[in-house]
C-alpha cells in the first residue's frame, strides 16, 4: 500500500475498505473500521476510509463509525447498499431504511466539517432485478434519506442530548424519518425537468429492449454478479 500511495498523482485519493470476511472470516487483513483507520493514518493525508454498509458484523452501529471517522478526518466515502445477513449488496433502503437515515443524519450534522469531501457510490449486486431499475430505486432512496435527515430539528435534538433525554432525542429522529418527503422529491425532479416517476419513465422508454438487441449474448456461466 505504501508503494501504491507513493505513486499516486497529486489530485488522487486512496480509500481503504474494511470487511469482516474475505478472504477469511473474522481474521482477514482489513477486517474492521479501526484497522482501516490505522491504515489511512499511517499512509498519509491522501488515504481515507471507505464505508460499505454491508461490510460489518450484525448489529454494528455504522452511524457511530461514520461520526468517528469524520472526527478523525479520515472518512472518504461510501458504498451504499443494504444488508440482511452480511455483504448482500441489496438495493439501498430495502432492508434497513432507518439505518440509512441514521447514517445521513450524521452526515447532515457534520456536513460543514472542514475538509469533508465524500465520495458517494453505489455498490450492489442485482441478481433478480433489472440492474438499471435497481440503481434508479437506490438513488431515489438515498435522496429520500438525505432529505429526511435534513428535516431533523437540530436545536431540539441538541437540547435533548444535552439533557441526556434519550427518549425524546430518539423521538425527534423518528419524527423526521416518518415524514413523507415524496412531494419534495417529486418537486425537485420537476424543477430539474426529470421524470416524476423514474421507473415508469424508464420502462416506457423501451431502452432495455433496444440495448439487448445491440449487445451480444453472453456465453458460458457466471456468478450472477452484474
Into which percentage range does the β-strand content fall?
5-15%
Could you give the distance between the termini?
28 Å
- Helix and strand succession? HEHEHEHEHHHHHH
Q: What does the radius of gyration come to?
A: 20 Å
How much is the average pLDDT? Answer: 93
Q: So how many helices? A: 10
Strand order of the largest sheet: 1-2-3-4
The unreliable regions are none
Corresponding CATH superfamily of the domain at 2-129: Divalent-metal-dependent TIM barrel enzymes
Structural class, from helix and strand content?
alpha/beta
Secondary structure: number of strands = 4
Quick one: overall form?
A: globular
CATH class of the domain at 2-129: Alpha Beta
Largest sheet: 4 strands, parallel
Helix content: 40-55%
The CATH level-2 architecture of the domain at 2-129 is identified as Alpha-Beta Barrel
CATH topology of the domain at 2-129: TIM Barrel
Keywords:
globular, 10 helices, single chain, alpha/beta
Explain this structure to me?
With 226 residues, the chain is α/β, with parallel strands linked by helices. It has a domain of 128 residues: Divalent-metal-dependent TIM barrel enzymes (TIM Barrel). Helix content is 47%, strand content 9%. It has 10 helices and 4 strands, in the order H-E-H-E-H-E-H-E-H-H-H-H-H-H. Strands 1-2-3-4 form a 4-stranded parallel sheet. Helix 4 links the parallel strand 3 and strand 4. The two termini are 28 Å apart.
In brief, what are we looking at here?
This protein is 47% helix and 9% strand. It is α/β, with parallel strands linked by helices and 226 residues long.
Amino acid at each position: 500500500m505504501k508503494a501504491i500511495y507513493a505513486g499516486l498523482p497529486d489530485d488522487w485519493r486512496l480509500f481503504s475498505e474494511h470487511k469482516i470476511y474475505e478472504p477469511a472470516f473474522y481474521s482477514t487483513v482489513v477486517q474492521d473500521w479501526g484497522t482501516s483507520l490505522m491504515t489511512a493514518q499511517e499512509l498519509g493525508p491522501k488515504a481515507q476510509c471507505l464505508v460499505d454498509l454491508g461490510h460489518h458484523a450484525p448489529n454494528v452501529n455504522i452511524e457511530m463509525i461514520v461520526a468517528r471517522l469524520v472526527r478523525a478526518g479520515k472518512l472518504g466515502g461510501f458504498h451504499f447498499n443494504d444488508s440482511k445477513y452480511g455483504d448482500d449488496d441489496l438495493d439501498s433502503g430495502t432492508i434497513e431504511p432507518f439505518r440509512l437515515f441514521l447514517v445521513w443524519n450524521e452526515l447532515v450534522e457534520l456536513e460543514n466539517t472542514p475538509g469533508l469531501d465524500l465520495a458517494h457510490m453505489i455498490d450492489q449486486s442485482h441478481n433478480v432485478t433489472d440492474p438499471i431499475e435497481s440503481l434508479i430505486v437506490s438513488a431515489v432512496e438515498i435522496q429520500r434519506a438525505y432529505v429526511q435527515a435534513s428535516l431533523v430539528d437540530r436545536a431540539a435534538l441538541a437540547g435533548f442530548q444535552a439533557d441526556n433525554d434519550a427518549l425524546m432525542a430518539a423521538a425527534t429522529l423518528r419524527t423526521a424519518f416518518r415524514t413523507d418527503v415524496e412531494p419534495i422529491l417529486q418537486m425537485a425532479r420537476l424543477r430539474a425537468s426529470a421524470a416524476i416517476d423514474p421507473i415508469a419513465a424508464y420502462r416506457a422508454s423501451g431502452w432495455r429492449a433496444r440495448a439487448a438487441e445491440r449487445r451480444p449474448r453472453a456465453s458460458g456461466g457466471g456468478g450472477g454478479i452484474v
